[in-house]
Amino acid sequence: MYRHKTDLKYSDITPRNAFLNRRQVIAGAAGLAAAGSIGGAAQAKLMAKKGSPYSTSEDANSFEDVTPYNNFYEFGTGKPDPAKHAHKLTTDPWSVEIGGLVNNPGNYALEDILKEVTLEERIYRFRCVEAWAMVVPWVGFQLSDLIARADPMGSARYVAFETLHRPDEMHGQKSKSFPWPYVEGLRMDEAMHPLTILATGIYDEELPKQNGAPLRLVVPWKYGFKSIKSIVKITLTEKEPPATWNLIQPGEYGFYSNVNPEVDHPRWSQASHRPIGGGLFAKRVPTLKFNGYGEEVASLYAGMDLHKLY
Ligand SMILES: Nc1nc2c(c(=O)[nH]1)N[C@H]1C(S)=C(S)[C@@H](COP(=O)(O)O)O[C@H]1N2
Ligand SMILES: [Mo]
Q: Which residue among 218, 229, 232 has the greatest number of ligand 1 atoms within 8 angstroms of its CB, and so is best to mutate?
């Protein structure tokens, strides 16, 4: 379904072809049957949505694993801070400015975006990894759907993302030690890949604010910090856009940030991680290249030296 070609036309990307739909139904049913840690009502609600063909069959973590400890520096640098403070964020109304090298630029109300893409909303049960790992059943839609509707120009090579800047509600943004707003970027082929989603929920609930409500990126083969939260701006560009962690510590965080056990962070090994939810003494497990999504995404990086372009 997805082809990696430099001359890829956006009209080539058909979000819902018959083949994909059939596979989704199968993957969705099989995946949900194995949804061990999600119980009763949540499970029934999840049944209402199709699963992505890319969903893992591994058990999902619990809601309690995913929501009390987060990184969201706009609400403080401590892991419990976002759960304590993110309720101050007003997420309705919300609009997203889509611009740069597109033929349909505009400032779109989130509900209008969701009306457009709502038929594609499904469950994406993805592994997410950093020094820890979780399996999260995101509700969302392919970023490619939104980009295709913006009608990119041929010169667009990257996609830049920006988080809301509203220090009144996000007190962390009053700190001058961080370059606000949080920004991130993807190369166009990464952004158009069907594994790259914009999430609006988890466990068929609205996205908790600490997890990046009302709209956040999820790129499951990259380290967690690429998944920018509370997005208000998406800009297609010709040049590689800035990325917050790369701006702050370029020697430690590259633009690509692909999960790669062969490339150590200068201050720690990235060869293994600790699964969340396995208890305090859970053993570290080996981290897989591209977080286990190599079959789907390795071809995007053919010929690139991933030790240099980390
Ligand atoms: N705007 C914004 N987005 C952000 C961050 C942040 O501080 N601000 N932290 C990142 C980091 S470091 C991680 S690990 C993930 C955490 O996402 P989660 O809380 O849903 O696990 O969000 C990423 N997105
Ligand atoms: Mo992180």
A: 229
